[in-house]
Design a protein that fits this description.
Blueprint: H1 6-11, E1 16-19, E2 37-42, E3 45-50
Antiparallel strand pairs: 1-2, 2-3
Length: 61
C-alpha cells in the first residue's frame, strides 16, 4: 500500500499538475487553456506556472 502512495510516486520522479482555479488534476493537454495558472507538485515542493500554449501537439516540438 505504501509503495502506491502518491508521495512514493513523486519520489520516483513523477509529478502532479493541477489547475490553480479549481485544484483539479490535469490529465490531458486540452484541460488547460493559454493563460491558465497551474501548480505542479514534485517530491520536494511545488512549482507555479502559467500555460503559454495549451494546444501543443508534440511534447518536444
Amino acid at each position: 500500500m505504501q509503495a502506491a502512495s502518491h508521495e512514493q510516486v513523486l519520489n520516483r520522479g513523477f509529478s502532479i499538475t493541477r489547475r490553480s482555479s479549481d485544484d483539479k488534476v490535469v490529465r490531458m493537454a486540452d484541460q488547460v487553456w493559454k493563460g491558465d495558472k497551474i501548480t505542479t507538485q514534485t517530491a520536494d515542493g511545488f512549482i507555479e506556472s502559467r500555460v503559454m500554449d495549451g494546444k501543443q501537439g508534440e511534447l518536444f516540438d
